[in-house]
Amino acid sequence: MNKFNNAFLAHYLGNSQESSRPIPRRRVSSNPCLPERLPTTGFLQREAETVAPKAILKQLRRSPTPSPPDSPEPEAEETSGHQRRPSLTSLASSAESSIRSFGSSLIQRREDKSQSSWKEPQAMLRAVERKDIMYLMEIRDRSFHLLVRMSGGITPLLHAMRLGQSHRDVAVILLGAFSRWVNHVEDDQMENPRTKMVLKALRANLKLAIDYGLTKTQGSDLTASFLQTLIMSQGESWVRGQSENVSLALRSGTEAKPVQTADSAVRKFATRELGKADLIATLADYIANATADLLMMGAWSLASEVLQLDQIPTYYFARDDRVYKAFVERLDEHKNAIQFKLTKRLKWQLRVLRSVLEGRTTTYRNKVELLAGELDEGEGV
After folding, report:
1. How many Å is the Cα radius of gyration of the chain?
2. Are residues 181 and 272 in the same domain?
3. Does residue 127 sit in the same domain as residue 209?
4. Positions of the region Disordered (predicted)?
């Protein structure tokens, strides 16, 4: 066995360990900092509600016309803040329920009166004075025209208003009956001379109520009902003319500002008929609804010229959501012809209108703002 002399290596290792001492590192100075605070959930939600619709509309410029759904989705439950048409119907129903609960204070309908023996009532003003709500509602269902007819130089509505605060509920019931009748007139009745006479009488009643000052306590519902009735009774030529103006603006693209054109037309009409700036300010929702109706009618007017189809009837205007339903039904029914025969710009405009105006999750004022941002201020097609 070979033996090695490791004395030199051991001596070297021993000396190196003694001479190599650790060199202390420079101490790092403490400089703490806090990360930036994240946005609140509310802020993120608002940003999403603002940005998401705009992103969807931007995507529509490059998307083909979508096919209609196989089965219609169930309609969302209506909320008071997002109803399409401001109406007194719900307010009147609530007031009617409250009044009925005080049965002891009301004069009930005679039990011996039967359907066969019904005659047109003659004591309207007395029924208003007695607050006979059941009697008035029976007249509403059987002989509505008596609610708007003059009797002794005065109408039931004006009589209730003149009786003061004690009969305010009766006035609300009558106004609710007016709005209910307007929204339930059948399409085939619009050309009936009797229907036109009732509409003119309704117009006089509502204008009378506005001038008398009931609108100060009822908000915009009464004013909107007046404009709705006015357009139905005498506004056919106005609706047709303004929808044609809007269709010309849509044909020209964003430079013609079609949304602004529709909005200005509705505001001008309301100002001319009401003549009161404070009333116009309370009509923001109604004006937005009417603006959307004009845009849909104008867009379909362009499509109907190419496809040789009927236009949306003018008497649909300002009646719940009839224009929107008719608009969507026509888009679904003629989707193939729309895809192959219409211009790229018009197909895009139809998609934008349908996408923005569907649903009840936002107000029509917000929807019109979205439409203006896309159809008036956007990049266009």
Report:
1. 34
2. no
3. yes
4. 16-120
Give the end of a domain, one of 234, 250, 268.
234
Instruction: Find the Cα–Cα–Cα–Cα dihedral 113, 118, 123, 127, rounded to 10°.
Output: 50
Nearby residues of 330 by Cβ (< 8 Å), 6 or more positions away:
300, 303, 309, 312
Answer yes or no: do 241 and 229 share one domain.
Answer: no
- Overall pTM surpassing 0.85 (yes/no): no
Rounded to the nearest 10 degrees, what angle do helices 41-60 and 344-357 cross at? Answer: 150
Same-domain pairing of 223 and 289:
no
Q: Which pLDDT tens digit goes with each residue over 306-341?
A: 999 999 988 888 777 889 999 999 999 999 999 999
Among the three residues 180, 213, 234, which one is the final residue of a domain in this structure? 234
Structural domain of residue 297, as residue ranges? 237-381
Residues 326 and 201 in one domain: no
**Mean pLDDT for the stretch of residues 202-217:** 72
- pLDDT, tens only, 68-109: 444 444 444 443 444 444 444 444 444 444 434 433 333 344
According to DSSP, residue 63 is labeled S
Does any domain span residue 311?
A: yes
